[in-house]
Design a protein that fits this description.
Blueprint (H helix, E strand, L loop, with lengths): L1 E12 L2 E12 L3 E5 L6 H8 L7 E6 L2 E5 L8 H8 L2 E4 L11 H13 L9 H18 L15 H13 L5 E5 L7 H16 L4 E4 L3 H7 L2 E6 L2 E6 L1 H6 L4 H12 L1
Parallel strand pairs: 3-8, 3-9, 6-7, 7-8
Antiparallel strand pairs: 1-2, 1-4, 4-5, 9-10
Helix pairs in contact: 3-4, 3-5, 4-5, 5-6
């Protein structure tokens, strides 16, 4: 059974159609890479999946649960949107860490906020906080940042900040981890740090969607690749087929331009 089913998603901003009839599915434990030029709709698609944007048409289902159906869309309370977002962990290209919090505090924050909403929080506050702190430390250790837990974002390199962001996205144990150009703000050395972490997550069968401009990385780590252009899925399939032997002319042109650049 598919972990994610995206069907006929469309998104308009004013008179501009950014996504047009986008459909795909994912199996649990797989990695999907989405490639395409700037403005092709890749980031908007991720934002729709994470309910930062509402599609104008289409449906989104995770583990058989219908999370969004544009035909029956209604205004939802923020608490309900937060519940739906828990299915997706989001890693942004610009890290989006809170500068006033340490690396550990950034990782702990969402889990703490959710815990504070629980009815037994007050009487078990000390134990709950201790468990959240331990979980945060384990995640940062997993990212190779055990010596940087008490550092603030400005004291960390870009690669270290992105690894904190990945730990934060993993903290709530999402069904699907989403990356929006996770290395675009990094120099080549720091890019390698972050790609190594993502490759390890793929080996551990973490379900992931990765918007990336790193073609070699997409070929190596992804089980499935989608090429988008002009808001539509032009071609999708095995990474070696899409990247090395594309069938569609638009895919060939994109990869040719990318290679020349």
């Amino acid at each position: 059974m598919s972990i994610l089913e995206v069907s006929h998603i469309e998104k308009h901003f004013g008179g501009t159609s950014v996504l047009k009839d986008v459909s795909f599915s994912m199996e649990e434990g797989s990695t999907l890479a989405i490639i395409g030029s700037s403005g092709s709709g890749k980031t908007t698609l991720l934002r729709c999946l994470n309910f930062l944007e509402k599609p104008n048409q289409g449906t989104i289902a995770v583990k058989g649960e219908m999370l969004y159906d544009a035909a029956n869309a209604k205004s939802e309370r923020e608490s309900e949107l937060r519940r739906k977002r828990l299915h997706f962990g989001m890693v942004f290209q610009s890290f989006n860490l809170f500068p006033q919090y340490t690396a550990l505090e950034n990782v702990m924050l969402a889990e703490r906020l959710l815990a504070e909403e629980q009815p037994d929080f007050k009487q078990n506050k000390k134990e709950i906080y201790a468990a959240i702190e331990e979980h945060g430390k384990q995640l940062l250790d997993r990212m190779g940042l055990s010596e940087r837990m008490d550092h603030y974002p400005h004291q960390l390199s870009g690669g270290q900040q992105q690894r904190v962001a990945i730990a934060r996205a993993l903290a709530l144990k999402p069904d699907i981890l989403c990356f929006d150009e996770p290395t675009s703000a990094l120099d080549p050395e720091l890019t390698g740090e972050v790609l190594k972490v993502i490759k390890n997550l793929a080996k551990q069968k973490t379900t992931m969607i990765i918007v990336t401009h790193e073609m070699a990385f997409a070929r190596d780590v992804a089980d499935h690749v989608i090429f988008m252009d002009g808001g539509v899925i032009v071609e999708q399939g095995d990474p070696h087929q899409v990247i090395d032997h594309p069938r569609e002319e638009r895919t060939k042109q994109f990869l040719s331009r990318y290679a020349q650049g």
